[in-house]
Amino acid sequence: MCGIIGYVGNNNSVPYIIDGLKRLEYRGYDSAGISILQGHELVTVRAVGKVAELEKATLLANPKGNTGIGHTRWATHGKPSEENSHPHTDCTGDIVVVHNGIIENYLTLRDKLESRGHRFKSETDTEVIAHLIEENLLHVRAENDQDRLLKAVQKTNKEIAGAYAYGVLWARTPGLLIGVKNQSPMVVGLGKDENFLASDVPAFLKHTNKVLFLEDGEIALLHVDGVTVLDKDGKEKEVKPVKISWDQQTAEKGGFAHFMLKEIYDQPQAIEDTLRTARADFGKILGLDTTGIRELRNIHIIACGTAYHAGLVGKYYIEQLAGIPVSVDLASEYKYRAIPPLPHTLAVAISQSGETADTIGAIKKAKELGFRTLAICNVLGSTLTRTCDGTFFTHCGPEISVASTKAFTSQITSVYALALFLGKANGNLSQAAFDKAYKGLLALSKAMSEAVKLEYEVRHLTRKIYKADRFIFLGRNVNFPIALEGALKLKEVSYRSAEGFAAGEIKHGPISIIDKGTPVFMIMPHDSLFEKMLSACQECRARGAFVVVITTKNGVKQAKDVADKVITVPQTDDLLQPIIDVVPLQFLAYWIAKRLGCDIDQPRNLAKSVTVE
Ligand code: F6R
Protein backbone atom coordinates (compact mmCIF):
# COMPACT_ATOMS: atom_id res chain seq x y z
CA MET A 1 0.00 0.00 0.00
CA CYS A 2 2.07 2.92 -1.28
CA GLY A 3 1.11 6.56 -1.77
CA ILE A 4 1.08 8.36 -5.13
CA ILE A 5 0.66 12.09 -5.80
CA GLY A 6 0.94 13.88 -9.14
CA TYR A 7 0.52 17.54 -10.06
CA VAL A 8 -0.06 19.43 -13.35
CA GLY A 9 -0.61 23.17 -13.06
CA ASN A 10 0.85 26.62 -13.47
CA ASN A 11 2.95 26.53 -10.31
CA ASN A 12 6.12 24.74 -9.34
CA SER A 13 4.91 21.22 -8.59
CA VAL A 14 7.57 20.42 -5.94
CA PRO A 15 5.87 21.87 -2.81
CA TYR A 16 2.53 20.30 -3.81
CA ILE A 17 4.13 16.90 -4.19
CA ILE A 18 6.20 16.99 -1.01
CA ASP A 19 3.18 18.16 1.00
CA GLY A 20 0.98 15.49 -0.65
CA LEU A 21 3.50 12.78 0.19
CA LYS A 22 3.58 13.83 3.85
CA ARG A 23 -0.17 13.49 3.95
CA LEU A 24 0.05 10.03 2.42
CA GLU A 25 2.71 8.72 4.77
CA TYR A 26 0.10 6.66 6.60
CA ARG A 27 0.04 4.48 3.45
CA GLY A 28 3.74 3.67 3.57
CA TYR A 29 6.94 5.18 4.79
CA ASP A 30 10.11 3.22 4.05
CA SER A 31 11.37 5.38 1.20
CA ALA A 32 10.11 8.12 -1.10
CA GLY A 33 10.85 9.81 -4.41
CA ILE A 34 9.86 12.59 -6.74
CA SER A 35 10.24 13.25 -10.50
CA ILE A 36 9.79 16.72 -11.92
CA LEU A 37 9.55 17.63 -15.60
CA GLN A 38 11.96 20.53 -15.89
CA GLY A 39 11.44 21.66 -19.47
CA HIS A 40 11.97 18.45 -21.44
CA GLU A 41 14.17 16.90 -18.77
CA LEU A 42 13.04 14.65 -15.94
CA VAL A 43 14.76 15.31 -12.63
CA THR A 44 14.37 12.51 -10.09
CA VAL A 45 15.26 12.61 -6.39
CA ARG A 46 14.83 9.59 -4.11
CA ALA A 47 15.64 8.88 -0.48
CA VAL A 48 15.36 6.04 2.00
CA GLY A 49 13.30 6.75 5.12
CA LYS A 50 10.41 9.09 5.73
CA VAL A 51 9.32 11.91 3.42
CA ALA A 52 11.32 14.34 5.56
CA GLU A 53 14.51 12.74 4.16
CA LEU A 54 13.25 13.22 0.61
CA GLU A 55 12.37 16.81 1.39
CA LYS A 56 15.98 17.49 2.48
CA ALA A 57 17.38 15.83 -0.65
CA THR A 58 14.93 17.73 -2.88
CA LEU A 59 15.90 21.07 -1.33
CA LEU A 60 19.51 20.34 -2.28
CA ALA A 61 18.70 19.26 -5.86
CA ASN A 62 16.17 22.11 -6.20
CA PRO A 63 14.20 20.85 -9.24
CA LYS A 64 11.50 23.14 -10.67
CA GLY A 65 8.67 22.32 -13.07
CA ASN A 66 4.89 22.51 -13.50
CA THR A 67 4.42 18.76 -13.89
CA GLY A 68 5.61 16.16 -11.42
CA ILE A 69 4.90 12.93 -9.57
CA GLY A 70 5.89 11.57 -6.19
CA HIS A 71 5.65 8.32 -4.27
CA THR A 72 5.97 7.12 -0.69
CA ARG A 73 6.75 3.44 -0.57
CA TRP A 74 5.71 0.48 1.50
CA ALA A 75 7.98 -2.16 0.06
CA THR A 76 6.48 -5.31 -1.45
CA HIS A 77 9.14 -6.34 -3.99
CA GLY A 78 12.73 -5.50 -3.12
CA LYS A 79 14.06 -4.14 0.16
CA PRO A 80 13.69 -0.47 1.09
CA SER A 81 16.65 1.19 -0.66
CA GLU A 82 17.25 4.15 -2.94
CA GLU A 83 17.43 1.91 -6.06
CA ASN A 84 14.08 0.32 -5.20
CA SER A 85 12.36 3.64 -4.41
CA HIS A 86 9.97 5.07 -6.97
CA PRO A 87 9.82 6.75 -9.46
CA HIS A 88 11.30 4.09 -11.72
CA THR A 89 12.56 4.79 -15.21
CA ASP A 90 12.97 3.01 -18.52
CA CYS A 91 16.39 2.55 -20.18
CA THR A 92 16.39 6.06 -21.66
CA GLY A 93 15.41 7.80 -18.42
CA ASP A 94 12.69 9.67 -20.36
CA ILE A 95 9.78 7.73 -18.86
CA VAL A 96 9.06 7.65 -15.13
CA VAL A 97 6.48 5.55 -13.33
CA VAL A 98 5.13 5.53 -9.77
CA HIS A 99 3.06 2.52 -8.82
CA ASN A 100 0.92 1.12 -6.04
CA GLY A 101 -0.03 -2.57 -6.07
CA ILE A 102 1.56 -5.78 -7.27
CA ILE A 103 2.40 -6.85 -10.83
CA GLU A 104 1.95 -10.60 -10.54
CA ASN A 105 3.63 -11.57 -13.81
CA TYR A 106 6.60 -9.23 -13.43
CA LEU A 107 9.24 -11.95 -13.45
CA THR A 108 8.06 -13.32 -16.80
CA LEU A 109 7.83 -9.82 -18.23
CA ARG A 110 11.23 -8.90 -16.88
CA ASP A 111 12.85 -11.95 -18.50
CA LYS A 112 11.19 -11.09 -21.80
CA LEU A 113 12.25 -7.45 -21.65
CA GLU A 114 15.80 -8.33 -20.61
CA SER A 115 16.08 -10.67 -23.59
CA ARG A 116 15.15 -7.67 -25.75
CA GLY A 117 18.01 -5.69 -24.26
CA HIS A 118 16.29 -3.74 -21.47
CA ARG A 119 18.50 -3.10 -18.44
CA PHE A 120 16.89 -3.16 -15.01
CA LYS A 121 18.20 -1.12 -12.11
CA SER A 122 15.95 -2.25 -9.25
CA GLU A 123 14.43 -5.41 -7.76
CA THR A 124 10.90 -4.04 -8.03
CA ASP A 125 7.91 -5.23 -10.02
CA THR A 126 7.18 -1.58 -10.90
CA GLU A 127 10.18 -1.16 -13.15
CA VAL A 128 8.69 -3.54 -15.74
CA ILE A 129 5.92 -0.98 -16.35
CA ALA A 130 8.44 1.72 -17.35
CA HIS A 131 10.31 -0.66 -19.66
CA LEU A 132 7.11 -2.05 -21.17
CA ILE A 133 5.93 1.47 -21.99
CA GLU A 134 9.32 2.18 -23.55
CA GLU A 135 9.08 -1.01 -25.61
CA ASN A 136 5.49 -0.38 -26.63
CA LEU A 137 6.24 3.20 -27.71
CA LEU A 138 8.38 1.62 -30.43
CA HIS A 139 5.46 -0.38 -31.75
CA VAL A 140 2.48 2.00 -31.66
CA ARG A 141 1.62 4.64 -34.22
CA ALA A 142 -0.19 7.91 -33.55
CA GLU A 143 -0.44 11.45 -34.80
CA ASN A 144 1.17 13.06 -31.80
CA ASP A 145 3.25 12.17 -28.77
CA GLN A 146 0.31 12.32 -26.35
CA ASP A 147 -1.65 9.73 -28.34
CA ARG A 148 1.47 7.60 -28.72
CA LEU A 149 2.02 7.56 -24.98
CA LEU A 150 -1.62 6.75 -24.36
CA LYS A 151 -1.55 3.84 -26.81
CA ALA A 152 1.67 2.52 -25.26
CA VAL A 153 0.06 2.68 -21.81
CA GLN A 154 -3.06 0.87 -23.06
CA LYS A 155 -0.92 -1.85 -24.62
CA THR A 156 1.08 -2.14 -21.39
CA ASN A 157 -2.12 -2.60 -19.37
CA LYS A 158 -3.04 -5.56 -21.53
CA GLU A 159 0.27 -7.21 -20.72
CA ILE A 160 0.51 -6.71 -16.98
CA ALA A 161 -1.52 -8.78 -14.51
CA GLY A 162 -2.40 -8.02 -10.91
CA ALA A 163 -3.68 -5.10 -8.90
CA TYR A 164 -2.15 -1.79 -9.81
CA ALA A 165 -2.56 1.95 -9.94
CA TYR A 166 0.21 3.94 -11.54
CA GLY A 167 1.16 7.36 -12.82
CA VAL A 168 3.41 8.07 -15.84
CA LEU A 169 5.38 11.06 -17.10
CA TRP A 170 7.22 11.21 -20.43
CA ALA A 171 9.87 13.84 -21.11
CA ARG A 172 8.38 14.41 -24.57
CA THR A 173 4.94 15.37 -23.25
CA PRO A 174 5.38 18.17 -20.68
CA GLY A 175 2.08 19.25 -19.15
CA LEU A 176 0.64 15.72 -19.38
CA LEU A 177 0.30 13.25 -16.54
CA ILE A 178 -1.34 9.86 -17.11
CA GLY A 179 -2.97 7.86 -14.32
CA VAL A 180 -4.13 4.23 -14.53
CA LYS A 181 -6.34 2.33 -12.09
CA ASN A 182 -6.94 -1.39 -11.77
CA GLN A 183 -7.94 -2.85 -8.37
CA SER A 184 -5.75 -0.41 -6.44
CA PRO A 185 -7.03 3.02 -5.48
CA MET A 186 -6.52 6.11 -7.66
CA VAL A 187 -8.36 9.42 -7.52
CA VAL A 188 -8.16 12.69 -9.43
CA GLY A 189 -8.51 16.12 -7.81
CA LEU A 190 -9.90 18.90 -10.01
CA GLY A 191 -8.50 22.33 -9.13
CA LYS A 192 -8.53 25.73 -10.83
CA ASP A 193 -5.78 25.65 -13.47
CA GLU A 194 -4.25 22.68 -11.69
CA ASN A 195 -5.14 19.01 -11.39
CA PHE A 196 -3.98 16.22 -9.14
CA LEU A 197 -3.58 12.47 -9.33
CA ALA A 198 -3.34 10.55 -6.05
CA SER A 199 -3.86 7.25 -4.28
CA ASP A 200 -6.08 8.98 -1.80
CA VAL A 201 -7.92 12.27 -1.26
CA PRO A 202 -5.86 13.69 1.67
CA ALA A 203 -2.92 14.16 -0.70
CA PHE A 204 -4.58 17.16 -2.33
CA LEU A 205 -7.57 18.05 -0.11
CA LYS A 206 -5.87 21.31 0.90
CA HIS A 207 -6.14 22.50 -2.72
CA THR A 208 -9.43 21.05 -3.93
CA ASN A 209 -12.36 18.99 -2.67
CA LYS A 210 -13.64 18.16 -6.17
CA VAL A 211 -12.76 14.53 -6.71
CA LEU A 212 -13.11 11.94 -9.47
CA PHE A 213 -13.00 8.38 -8.19
CA LEU A 214 -11.57 6.34 -11.06
CA GLU A 215 -13.04 2.89 -11.74
CA ASP A 216 -11.04 -0.26 -12.49
CA GLY A 217 -9.67 -0.25 -16.03
CA GLU A 218 -9.89 3.53 -16.41
CA ILE A 219 -7.17 5.89 -17.56
CA ALA A 220 -7.03 9.61 -16.73
CA LEU A 221 -5.14 12.18 -18.80
CA LEU A 222 -4.39 15.24 -16.72
CA HIS A 223 -3.51 18.62 -18.23
CA VAL A 224 -3.37 22.04 -16.62
CA ASP A 225 -6.77 23.01 -18.05
CA GLY A 226 -8.69 19.77 -17.69
CA VAL A 227 -8.87 16.04 -17.20
CA THR A 228 -10.03 13.41 -19.70
CA VAL A 229 -11.09 10.00 -18.42
CA LEU A 230 -11.21 6.94 -20.68
CA ASP A 231 -13.30 3.96 -19.62
CA LYS A 232 -12.06 0.37 -19.76
CA ASP A 233 -12.92 0.19 -23.46
CA GLY A 234 -10.89 3.31 -24.18
CA LYS A 235 -13.95 5.51 -24.73
CA GLU A 236 -14.05 9.05 -23.34
CA LYS A 237 -16.28 9.21 -20.30
CA GLU A 238 -18.30 12.09 -18.90
CA VAL A 239 -16.49 13.44 -15.88
CA LYS A 240 -18.66 13.78 -12.76
CA PRO A 241 -16.72 15.09 -9.76
CA VAL A 242 -17.86 14.43 -6.21
CA LYS A 243 -17.54 17.17 -3.56
CA ILE A 244 -15.81 15.83 -0.47
CA SER A 245 -16.88 17.27 2.85
CA TRP A 246 -14.24 15.49 4.98
CA ASP A 247 -11.65 17.41 6.92
CA GLN A 248 -8.00 16.45 6.49
CA GLN A 249 -7.90 14.01 9.42
CA THR A 250 -11.07 12.20 8.40
CA ALA A 251 -9.79 11.95 4.83
CA GLU A 252 -6.61 10.19 6.00
CA LYS A 253 -8.80 7.59 7.62
CA GLY A 254 -10.74 7.11 4.38
CA GLY A 255 -13.78 8.81 5.91
CA PHE A 256 -13.79 6.54 8.98
CA ALA A 257 -13.65 7.99 12.49
CA HIS A 258 -10.62 5.89 13.44
CA PHE A 259 -7.85 3.91 11.77
CA MET A 260 -9.00 0.83 13.69
CA LEU A 261 -12.39 0.95 11.98
CA LYS A 262 -10.82 1.68 8.59
CA GLU A 263 -8.46 -1.27 9.01
CA ILE A 264 -11.31 -3.63 9.92
CA TYR A 265 -12.95 -2.58 6.66
CA ASP A 266 -9.62 -2.95 4.81
CA GLN A 267 -9.70 -6.70 5.46
CA PRO A 268 -11.34 -7.98 2.25
CA GLN A 269 -8.67 -6.16 0.24
CA ALA A 270 -5.91 -7.10 2.69
CA ILE A 271 -6.82 -10.80 2.40
CA GLU A 272 -6.87 -10.50 -1.36
CA ASP A 273 -3.43 -8.92 -1.31
CA THR A 274 -2.10 -11.63 1.01
CA LEU A 275 -3.52 -14.30 -1.28
CA ARG A 276 -1.69 -12.94 -4.30
CA THR A 277 1.40 -14.76 -3.08
CA ALA A 278 -0.38 -17.67 -1.37
CA ARG A 279 1.03 -20.16 -3.86
CA ALA A 280 4.52 -19.20 -2.80
CA ASP A 281 7.24 -21.82 -2.83
CA PHE A 282 8.18 -21.83 0.85
CA GLY A 283 11.03 -24.22 0.05
CA LYS A 284 12.62 -21.53 -2.10
CA ILE A 285 11.90 -18.87 0.54
CA LEU A 286 13.64 -21.01 3.17
CA GLY A 287 16.44 -22.27 0.98
CA LEU A 288 15.30 -25.88 1.49
CA ASP A 289 15.01 -28.40 -1.33
CA THR A 290 12.17 -30.95 -1.55
CA THR A 291 14.06 -33.37 0.70
CA GLY A 292 14.67 -30.62 3.27
CA ILE A 293 10.96 -29.80 3.34
CA ARG A 294 9.95 -33.47 3.55
CA GLU A 295 12.36 -34.01 6.43
CA LEU A 296 10.84 -31.30 8.65
CA ARG A 297 9.83 -32.97 11.90
CA ASN A 298 8.95 -30.07 14.21
CA ILE A 299 7.67 -26.57 13.82
CA HIS A 300 8.03 -23.93 16.53
CA ILE A 301 5.81 -20.88 16.14
CA ILE A 302 6.97 -17.81 18.04
CA ALA A 303 5.07 -14.52 18.40
CA CYS A 304 3.56 -11.98 20.81
CA GLY A 305 0.06 -10.69 21.48
CA THR A 306 -2.29 -10.83 18.54
CA ALA A 307 0.37 -12.43 16.34
CA TYR A 308 0.65 -15.19 18.97
CA HIS A 309 -3.08 -15.85 18.58
CA ALA A 310 -2.56 -16.14 14.81
CA GLY A 311 0.18 -18.67 15.62
CA LEU A 312 -2.22 -20.68 17.80
CA VAL A 313 -4.63 -20.96 14.86
CA GLY A 314 -1.64 -21.91 12.71
CA LYS A 315 -0.90 -24.92 14.92
CA TYR A 316 -4.28 -26.44 14.00
CA TYR A 317 -3.60 -25.74 10.33
CA ILE A 318 -0.12 -27.23 10.11
CA GLU A 319 -0.93 -30.28 12.22
CA GLN A 320 -4.07 -31.05 10.23
CA LEU A 321 -2.88 -30.21 6.73
CA ALA A 322 0.80 -31.13 6.94
CA GLY A 323 0.83 -33.61 9.84
CA ILE A 324 3.86 -31.97 11.46
CA PRO A 325 3.79 -31.39 15.24
CA VAL A 326 3.74 -27.71 16.17
CA SER A 327 4.50 -25.90 19.40
CA VAL A 328 3.41 -22.28 19.80
CA ASP A 329 5.33 -20.08 22.22
CA LEU A 330 5.05 -16.55 23.42
CA ALA A 331 8.35 -15.12 22.22
CA SER A 332 9.17 -13.78 25.68
CA GLU A 333 8.87 -17.33 27.07
CA TYR A 334 10.65 -19.16 24.25
CA LYS A 335 13.79 -17.21 24.85
CA TYR A 336 14.12 -18.34 28.44
CA ARG A 337 13.08 -21.98 28.38
CA ALA A 338 15.16 -25.02 27.58
CA ILE A 339 14.50 -26.00 23.97
CA PRO A 340 15.84 -29.38 22.85
CA PRO A 341 17.96 -28.75 19.72
CA LEU A 342 16.16 -31.36 17.64
CA PRO A 343 17.21 -31.66 14.01
CA HIS A 344 14.80 -30.84 11.16
CA THR A 345 13.07 -28.09 13.12
CA LEU A 346 11.62 -25.01 11.50
CA ALA A 347 11.01 -21.91 13.65
CA VAL A 348 8.34 -19.53 12.35
CA ALA A 349 8.18 -16.01 13.78
CA ILE A 350 4.94 -14.11 13.18
CA SER A 351 5.06 -10.34 13.51
CA GLN A 352 3.27 -7.41 11.93
CA SER A 353 6.06 -4.91 12.52
CA GLY A 354 9.08 -7.19 12.37
CA GLU A 355 10.57 -5.02 15.12
CA THR A 356 9.19 -6.68 18.25
CA ALA A 357 12.21 -7.19 20.51
CA ASP A 358 10.87 -10.37 22.16
CA THR A 359 10.20 -12.03 18.79
CA ILE A 360 13.59 -11.04 17.40
CA GLY A 361 15.32 -12.32 20.56
CA ALA A 362 13.46 -15.64 20.34
CA ILE A 363 14.21 -16.18 16.66
CA LYS A 364 17.89 -15.47 17.30
CA LYS A 365 17.82 -18.23 19.89
CA ALA A 366 16.17 -20.57 17.36
CA LYS A 367 19.00 -19.78 14.94
CA GLU A 368 21.60 -20.54 17.59
CA LEU A 369 19.92 -23.90 18.10
CA GLY A 370 20.49 -24.59 14.42
CA PHE A 371 16.85 -24.30 13.31
CA ARG A 372 15.82 -23.00 9.90
CA THR A 373 13.89 -19.75 10.44
CA LEU A 374 10.93 -18.21 8.61
CA ALA A 375 9.36 -14.80 9.25
CA ILE A 376 5.71 -14.14 8.50
CA CYS A 377 5.83 -10.38 8.51
CA ASN A 378 4.21 -7.25 7.13
CA VAL A 379 7.23 -4.98 6.90
CA LEU A 380 9.82 -5.61 4.24
CA GLY A 381 13.32 -4.77 5.37
CA SER A 382 12.41 -4.96 9.08
CA THR A 383 14.90 -6.44 11.57
CA LEU A 384 13.01 -9.74 11.76
CA THR A 385 13.06 -10.24 8.00
CA ARG A 386 16.78 -9.52 7.96
CA THR A 387 17.36 -12.01 10.77
CA CYS A 388 15.41 -14.98 9.39
CA ASP A 389 16.47 -17.33 6.58
CA GLY A 390 13.38 -16.39 4.62
CA THR A 391 10.23 -14.27 4.80
CA PHE A 392 6.65 -14.62 3.65
CA PHE A 393 5.14 -11.15 3.46
CA THR A 394 1.56 -10.68 4.57
CA HIS A 395 1.14 -7.69 2.22
CA CYS A 396 -1.79 -6.20 4.14
CA GLY A 397 -0.50 -2.63 3.98
CA PRO A 398 0.60 -0.44 6.89
CA GLU A 399 -1.39 -0.93 10.05
CA ILE A 400 -1.66 2.37 11.92
CA SER A 401 -4.08 1.56 14.73
CA VAL A 402 -2.27 0.14 17.75
CA ALA A 403 -4.91 -2.58 18.01
CA SER A 404 -4.11 -5.06 15.29
CA THR A 405 -6.97 -6.22 13.07
CA LYS A 406 -6.12 -6.68 9.40
CA ALA A 407 -2.60 -7.89 10.19
CA PHE A 408 -4.14 -10.66 12.32
CA THR A 409 -6.41 -12.04 9.60
CA SER A 410 -3.61 -11.75 7.03
CA GLN A 411 -1.25 -13.61 9.36
CA ILE A 412 -3.68 -16.51 9.75
CA THR A 413 -4.20 -16.58 5.99
CA SER A 414 -0.43 -16.71 5.51
CA VAL A 415 0.03 -19.64 7.91
CA TYR A 416 -2.73 -21.46 6.06
CA ALA A 417 -0.77 -20.96 2.82
CA LEU A 418 2.32 -22.37 4.59
CA ALA A 419 0.37 -25.38 5.91
CA LEU A 420 -1.00 -26.12 2.44
CA PHE A 421 2.46 -25.92 0.92
CA LEU A 422 3.97 -28.24 3.54
CA GLY A 423 1.06 -30.69 3.30
CA LYS A 424 1.41 -30.96 -0.44
CA ALA A 425 5.19 -31.13 -0.35
CA ASN A 426 5.35 -33.90 2.26
CA GLY A 427 2.50 -35.92 0.79
CA ASN A 428 0.12 -35.43 3.70
CA LEU A 429 -2.37 -33.81 1.32
CA SER A 430 -3.53 -35.43 -1.89
CA GLN A 431 -3.73 -33.20 -4.98
CA ALA A 432 -7.55 -33.26 -4.68
CA ALA A 433 -7.46 -32.24 -1.01
CA PHE A 434 -4.97 -29.49 -1.80
CA ASP A 435 -7.12 -28.16 -4.65
CA LYS A 436 -10.23 -28.18 -2.48
CA ALA A 437 -8.50 -26.35 0.35
CA TYR A 438 -6.97 -23.84 -2.03
CA LYS A 439 -10.36 -23.14 -3.57
CA GLY A 440 -11.70 -22.39 -0.10
CA LEU A 441 -8.83 -20.01 0.49
CA LEU A 442 -9.60 -18.10 -2.68
CA ALA A 443 -13.20 -17.58 -1.56
CA LEU A 444 -12.09 -15.96 1.69
CA SER A 445 -12.00 -12.35 0.59
CA LYS A 446 -15.63 -12.53 -0.58
CA ALA A 447 -16.72 -13.94 2.78
CA MET A 448 -14.76 -11.16 4.47
CA SER A 449 -16.64 -8.55 2.40
CA GLU A 450 -19.87 -10.01 3.81
CA ALA A 451 -18.50 -10.16 7.36
CA VAL A 452 -17.71 -6.43 7.51
CA LYS A 453 -21.40 -5.77 6.90
CA LEU A 454 -22.01 -6.88 10.50
CA GLU A 455 -20.91 -3.58 11.96
CA TYR A 456 -24.37 -2.12 12.38
CA GLU A 457 -25.71 -5.20 14.18
CA VAL A 458 -22.74 -5.35 16.55
CA ARG A 459 -22.87 -1.63 17.18
CA HIS A 460 -26.52 -1.95 18.15
CA LEU A 461 -25.74 -4.82 20.52
CA THR A 462 -23.05 -2.82 22.33
CA ARG A 463 -25.65 -0.30 23.48
CA LYS A 464 -26.99 -2.98 25.82
CA ILE A 465 -23.73 -4.31 27.20
CA TYR A 466 -21.01 -1.67 27.06
CA LYS A 467 -21.21 -0.87 30.76
CA ALA A 468 -20.55 -4.44 31.90
CA ASP A 469 -17.54 -4.90 34.19
CA ARG A 470 -16.25 -8.03 32.56
CA PHE A 471 -16.66 -9.92 29.32
CA ILE A 472 -16.03 -13.59 28.59
CA PHE A 473 -15.18 -15.18 25.22
CA LEU A 474 -15.40 -18.92 24.60
CA GLY A 475 -14.43 -21.05 21.63
CA ARG A 476 -13.04 -24.47 20.80
CA ASN A 477 -10.50 -25.86 18.41
CA VAL A 478 -9.59 -23.28 15.73
CA ASN A 479 -11.93 -20.83 17.41
CA PHE A 480 -10.28 -21.06 20.83
CA PRO A 481 -7.57 -18.58 19.75
CA ILE A 482 -10.36 -16.32 18.46
CA ALA A 483 -11.83 -16.26 21.97
CA LEU A 484 -8.40 -15.13 23.23
CA GLU A 485 -8.13 -12.52 20.51
CA GLY A 486 -11.67 -11.21 21.12
CA ALA A 487 -10.76 -10.67 24.76
CA LEU A 488 -7.40 -9.08 23.99
CA LYS A 489 -8.91 -6.65 21.49
CA LEU A 490 -11.57 -5.57 23.94
CA LYS A 491 -9.09 -5.12 26.81
CA GLU A 492 -6.70 -3.13 24.69
CA VAL A 493 -9.07 -0.49 23.39
CA SER A 494 -11.80 -0.30 26.03
CA TYR A 495 -9.75 -1.07 29.21
CA ARG A 496 -12.55 -3.44 30.29
CA SER A 497 -11.75 -6.72 31.95
CA ALA A 498 -12.09 -9.50 29.37
CA GLU A 499 -11.00 -13.11 29.29
CA GLY A 500 -10.98 -15.81 26.65
CA PHE A 501 -11.12 -19.53 27.40
CA ALA A 502 -11.41 -22.85 25.65
CA ALA A 503 -15.10 -23.56 26.11
CA GLY A 504 -14.42 -27.05 27.48
CA GLU A 505 -12.37 -25.52 30.28
CA ILE A 506 -14.96 -23.28 31.91
CA LYS A 507 -16.27 -26.03 34.16
CA HIS A 508 -12.73 -26.44 35.51
CA GLY A 509 -12.74 -22.99 37.10
CA PRO A 510 -13.61 -19.95 35.01
CA ILE A 511 -17.38 -20.48 35.27
CA SER A 512 -17.22 -19.09 38.79
CA ILE A 513 -16.69 -15.56 37.44
CA ILE A 514 -19.90 -15.68 35.41
CA ASP A 515 -22.58 -13.70 37.13
CA LYS A 516 -26.02 -12.32 36.35
CA GLY A 517 -25.78 -10.29 33.15
CA THR A 518 -22.10 -11.10 32.37
CA PRO A 519 -21.79 -10.91 28.57
CA VAL A 520 -20.44 -14.23 27.28
CA PHE A 521 -19.51 -14.49 23.61
CA MET A 522 -19.65 -18.02 22.20
CA ILE A 523 -17.74 -18.46 18.94
CA MET A 524 -19.39 -21.54 17.53
CA PRO A 525 -19.78 -22.00 13.79
CA HIS A 526 -21.88 -24.99 12.80
CA ASP A 527 -19.06 -27.56 12.80
CA SER A 528 -18.30 -30.87 14.52
CA LEU A 529 -18.04 -29.18 17.95
CA PHE A 530 -21.26 -27.20 17.66
CA GLU A 531 -23.27 -29.49 19.94
CA LYS A 532 -20.62 -29.25 22.64
CA MET A 533 -20.69 -25.49 22.39
CA LEU A 534 -24.47 -25.58 22.82
CA SER A 535 -23.94 -27.31 26.18
CA ALA A 536 -21.48 -24.61 27.20
CA CYS A 537 -24.10 -21.97 26.31
CA GLN A 538 -26.58 -23.66 28.58
CA GLU A 539 -24.08 -23.85 31.42
CA CYS A 540 -23.41 -20.10 31.14
CA ARG A 541 -27.05 -19.20 30.78
CA ALA A 542 -27.90 -21.18 33.91
CA ARG A 543 -25.54 -18.80 35.79
CA GLY A 544 -27.41 -15.76 34.44
CA ALA A 545 -24.98 -14.85 31.63
CA PHE A 546 -26.06 -12.69 28.70
CA VAL A 547 -25.13 -15.15 25.96
CA VAL A 548 -24.17 -13.92 22.50
CA VAL A 549 -23.63 -16.67 19.93
CA ILE A 550 -21.54 -16.13 16.83
CA THR A 551 -22.43 -18.86 14.38
CA THR A 552 -22.94 -19.76 10.74
CA LYS A 553 -26.28 -20.11 8.94
CA ASN A 554 -26.92 -23.77 9.86
CA GLY A 555 -26.40 -23.10 13.54
CA VAL A 556 -28.82 -20.19 13.91
CA LYS A 557 -31.99 -22.12 14.71
CA GLN A 558 -30.50 -24.12 17.60
CA ALA A 559 -28.46 -21.17 18.82
CA LYS A 560 -31.61 -19.09 19.24
CA ASP A 561 -32.85 -21.52 21.91
CA VAL A 562 -29.83 -20.93 24.11
CA ALA A 563 -28.77 -17.36 23.37
CA ASP A 564 -29.88 -13.83 24.10
CA LYS A 565 -28.49 -12.73 20.79
CA VAL A 566 -27.28 -14.59 17.69
CA ILE A 567 -24.89 -13.08 15.16
CA THR A 568 -24.67 -14.92 11.84
CA VAL A 569 -21.31 -14.86 10.10
CA PRO A 570 -20.63 -15.98 6.52
CA GLN A 571 -19.66 -19.62 6.16
CA THR A 572 -16.24 -20.74 4.89
CA ASP A 573 -14.28 -23.99 5.12
CA ASP A 574 -14.21 -25.04 8.79
CA LEU A 575 -10.49 -24.38 9.12
CA LEU A 576 -10.77 -20.89 7.64
CA GLN A 577 -13.79 -19.94 9.71
CA PRO A 578 -11.80 -18.18 12.50
CA ILE A 579 -10.60 -15.57 10.00
CA ILE A 580 -14.22 -14.55 9.54
CA ASP A 581 -15.42 -15.18 13.11
CA VAL A 582 -13.06 -12.59 14.54
CA VAL A 583 -14.65 -9.72 12.59
CA PRO A 584 -17.72 -9.16 14.81
CA LEU A 585 -15.37 -9.25 17.82
CA GLN A 586 -13.22 -6.53 16.28
CA PHE A 587 -16.35 -4.38 15.81
CA LEU A 588 -17.39 -5.23 19.36
CA ALA A 589 -14.11 -3.95 20.81
CA TYR A 590 -14.29 -0.84 18.67
CA TRP A 591 -17.86 0.06 19.59
CA ILE A 592 -17.51 -0.60 23.29
CA ALA A 593 -14.39 1.59 23.36
CA LYS A 594 -16.19 4.26 21.37
CA ARG A 595 -19.17 4.29 23.70
CA LEU A 596 -16.82 4.53 26.67
CA GLY A 597 -14.97 7.46 25.09
CA CYS A 598 -11.57 5.73 24.90
CA ASP A 599 -8.66 6.79 22.71
CA ILE A 600 -9.20 4.01 20.20
CA ASP A 601 -6.22 4.33 17.87
CA GLN A 602 -3.75 4.99 20.66
CA PRO A 603 -4.91 3.16 23.78
CA ARG A 604 -3.25 4.16 27.04
CA ASN A 605 0.04 2.45 27.97
CA LEU A 606 0.42 0.78 24.57
CA ALA A 607 2.72 1.29 21.58
CA LYS A 608 2.36 -0.05 18.06
CA SER A 609 5.78 -1.57 18.02
CA VAL A 610 7.32 -2.94 21.22
CA THR A 611 11.04 -2.64 20.59
CA VAL A 612 12.17 -3.31 24.15
CA GLU A 613 12.21 -6.59 26.02
C1 F6R B 1 -2.63 -6.29 19.70
C2 F6R B 1 -1.33 -5.96 19.18
C3 F6R B 1 -0.14 -6.56 19.86
C4 F6R B 1 0.84 -7.08 18.81
C5 F6R B 1 2.14 -7.55 19.48
C6 F6R B 1 3.12 -8.09 18.44
O1 F6R B 1 -3.62 -5.64 18.99
O2 F6R B 1 -1.21 -5.27 18.23
O3 F6R B 1 -0.50 -7.56 20.75
O4 F6R B 1 0.24 -8.12 18.11
O5 F6R B 1 2.74 -6.49 20.16
O6 F6R B 1 3.45 -7.13 17.51
P1 F6R B 1 4.09 -7.54 16.13
O7 F6R B 1 3.08 -8.30 15.37
O8 F6R B 1 4.44 -6.24 15.47
O9 F6R B 1 5.29 -8.36 16.44
From TrEMBL:
SUPFAM superfamilies (alphabetical) = N-terminal nucleophile aminohydrolases (Ntn hydrolases), SIS domain
Q: Does the keyword rRNA processing apply?
A: no
GO MF terms on file?
A: carbohydrate derivative binding; glutamine-fructose-6-phosphate transaminase (isomerizing) activity
Q: Which reaction does it catalyse?
A: D-fructose 6-phosphate + L-glutamine = D-glucosamine 6-phosphate + L-glutamate
Q: Which residues form the Glutamine amidotransferase type-2 domain?
A: 2-225
Regions annotated as coiled coil: none
Question: Does the record carry Repeat as a key word?
Answer: yes
Protein's name in the database: Glutamine--fructose-6-phosphate aminotransferase [isomerizing]
Which source organism? Answer: Candidatus Avelusimicrobium gallicola
Gene that encodes it: glmS
